[in-house]
């Protein structure tokens, strides 16, 4: 197994990212939205490469008052449980600090206990839930992490 490298997204990565999005979420973002994120989040849209293939991605934006917001993170099913998601988040935290963020926010499905546990290990704490956040009516859990 090769090593994982993390870098900024490239236009040529978009088909792979969209495929990962489709494989990872019940209600995936559209390719148009993902492409728009690549233009908005120039420094905070990262991909993980392993063995020459895109294994996962994370995208965030910095909002006013030092809030970094993770919009989406996903790892291709073939590469899950190898620490790629954690590596992406750790690198993203460094970049968000450089961009002036002092807090990071994310939303996760209430039913996605595995992801919630992973985020908790990385220092995210549950702030509250939002009822019927997702299109199918499922609640989300909002999690925050202070970064210094």
Topology:
Elements: E1 4-8, H1 14-24, H2 31-40, E2 45-50, E3 53-63, E4 67-75, H3 84-98, E5 103-109, H4 113-121, E6 125-130, E7 140-146
Parallel strand pairs: 4-5
Antiparallel strand pairs: 1-2, 2-3, 3-4, 5-7, 6-7
Look up the CATH topology. Aminopeptidase
Total helix count? 4
Question: Distance N terminus to C terminus?
Answer: 34 Å
Overall morphology: globular
Q: Helicity level, as a percent range?
A: 25-40%
Q: Give me the strand/helix succession.
A: EHHEEEHEHEE
Radius of gyration: 15 Å
CATH class identity: Alpha Beta
Beta content comes to: 25-35%
Largest sheet: 7 strands, mixed
Count of DSSP E strands?
A: 7
Overall structural class, as computed from helix and strand content, comes to alpha+beta
Uncertain segments: none
Question: Would you tell me the overall average pLDDT?
Answer: 92
The CATH architecture designation is: 3-Layer(aba) Sandwich
- Please give the domain count: 1
The side-by-side strand order for the widest beta sheet comes to: 1-2-3-4-5-7-6
């Amino acid at each position: 197994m090769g090593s994982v490298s993390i870098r900024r997204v490239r236009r040529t990565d978009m088909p792979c990212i969209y495929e990962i999005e489709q494989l990872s979420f019940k209600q995936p973002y559209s390719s148009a939205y993902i492409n728009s994120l690549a233009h908005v989040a120039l420094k905070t849209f990262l991909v993980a490469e392993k063995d020459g293939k895109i294994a996962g991605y994370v995208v965030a934006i910095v909002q006013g008052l030092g809030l970094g917001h993770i919009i989406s993170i996903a790892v291709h099913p073939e590469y899950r449980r190898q620490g790629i998601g954690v590596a992406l988040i750790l690198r993203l935290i460094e970049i968000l600090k450089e961009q002036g963020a002092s807090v990071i926010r994310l939303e996760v499905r209430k039913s996605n206990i595995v992801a919630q546990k992973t985020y908790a290990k990385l220092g995210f704490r549950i702030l509250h839930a939002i009822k019927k956040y997702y299109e199918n009516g499922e609640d989300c859990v909002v999690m925050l992490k202070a970064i210094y």
